[in-house]
Amino acid sequence: MSRNPTACLLIIGNEVLSGRTKDANLQFLATRLGEIGIPLREVRVIPDVPDTIINTVNEVRQHFDHVFTTGGIGPTHDDITAECIARAFGVPWEQHPEAMALLAAHYERQGSEFNAARQRMATIPRGATLIENPVSVAPGFTIGNVHVMAGVPRIMQAMFETLAPGLEGGQAVVSRSVHADGLLEGNLAEGLGAIQARFPALDIGSYPYYRPDRQGVSLVAKGVDGAAVEAAAAEMAALIRGLGLEPVEGEVA
Amino acid sequence: MSRNPTACLLIIGNEVLSGRTKDANLQFLATRLGEIGIPLREVRVIPDVPDTIINTVNEVRQHFDHVFTTGGIGPTHDDITAECIARAFGVPWEQHPEAMALLAAHYERQGSEFNAARQRMATIPRGATLIENPVSVAPGFTIGNVHVMAGVPRIMQAMFETLAPGLEGGQAVVSRSVHADGLLEGNLAEGLGAIQARFPALDIGSYPYYRPDRQGVSLVAKGVDGAAVEAAAAEMAALIRGLGLEPVEGEVA
């Protein structure tokens, strides 16, 4: 079993750190990256501060196979991601002919001026390749192992789906879960730890849920070995039965 | 104007990185920390891997005035935060008499066994002080500048509110926003950049919104100087009027 490539996500934007904007990209990317076998190993949310962006990009691109960034590639003064990525890679930040042509045609169709602010969205690090934006034209880009995408979820998702087929993924991470109302973590902990010990390659987790009408715990087994995940899920169900409760497959509705 | 203290949040848990769980703590803490003048400057989401937790805690506690952690303090095998924090600080991880007494009484009232798994929730780094948990008794704790809280949002929020009055905050971050349907970032970018240049101490942001029935942009001014925030908001409204649109105070509904 070869090692799966790993991913890190950088969410760039003061608006997430201030609480103004609720991030909606982490869960989408976490799920999709797991599906294509490039599991997300770390996320950082960082501010629109050039040195922070540059240093963080240069740190994480050494440690992970892929780095995905969201945010900061629009036309306004606080959109500094592309320029900072260029500085991180030590390459010029310059107008990209294909991106300029795409945007010039787009604004001509719209009857809007292709002004300096909008030309900024076609200004990217030298050597980068474009990531198509089927929603609003202004592209993302890939340089080295860093994939730079928009922050607006609908645009980010479209960019990711144009990017994904070209990424060399690994084995998909699969998961099985089982839950039971009335289950208490303190009662299952010992048995669950023993299951984890028998399946060291899997990620076995225990997640209590609190609903107005019901409380209980979901147990989850994850990993790239589907047969081991099935076997662990069967043991988790047996553990719940041994505590006198009825296990229900899947997550709590 | 003295510098505000700074905060970093560590969200600890494989379940967030896999997409299984949607984090609901970042926005709450970002907002509350801004209100008490301890603005959040970075967030990291990291897995339940001891070396990662230990190294990350030791890195960020040097760089920020306060570190808040969420997740990993329950009774199961994947709840390793407290032990890792003890190792990060180089102190023993041991039963805390007050926490043991609280939990022993709680489980006696419940008629549940106070078993080894549950005693784990009273095992914390030597020298830590407890953070009360008014929801489910098992406490969080503070050691040095690191505040260790539960991952379940309702419990985390209750812990934060017991902790907050004892934190020495700074000036509250205040914010004013103005928006207009039909506004385009490419048209306002130059004028907004000029406003940012006139108010360098403020954080001026531009956030497009896309609704089924309306599109536009929200402009936001944030900072600790309320008068400057008001003045910048007035300039943002004038900028929108200059583009032939009617500014509306506040965020888009």
TrEMBL record, chains A, B:
<dbReference type="Pfam" id="PF00994">
    <property type="entry name" value="MoCF_biosynth"/>
</dbReference>
<dbReference type="InterPro" id="IPR056596">
    <property type="entry name" value="FLAD1_M"/>
</dbReference>
<dbReference type="InterPro" id="IPR036425">
    <property type="entry name" value="MoaB/Mog-like_dom_sf"/>
</dbReference>
<dbReference type="Pfam" id="PF24102">
    <property type="entry name" value="FLAD1_M"/>
</dbReference>
<dbReference type="InterPro" id="IPR001453">
    <property type="entry name" value="MoaB/Mog_dom"/>
</dbReference>
<feature type="domain" description="MoaB/Mog">
    <location>
        <begin position="8"/>
        <end position="170"/>
    </location>
</feature>
<dbReference type="InterPro" id="IPR050101">
    <property type="entry name" value="CinA"/>
</dbReference>
<protein>
    <submittedName>
        <fullName>Competence/damage-inducible protein A</fullName>
    </submittedName>
</protein>
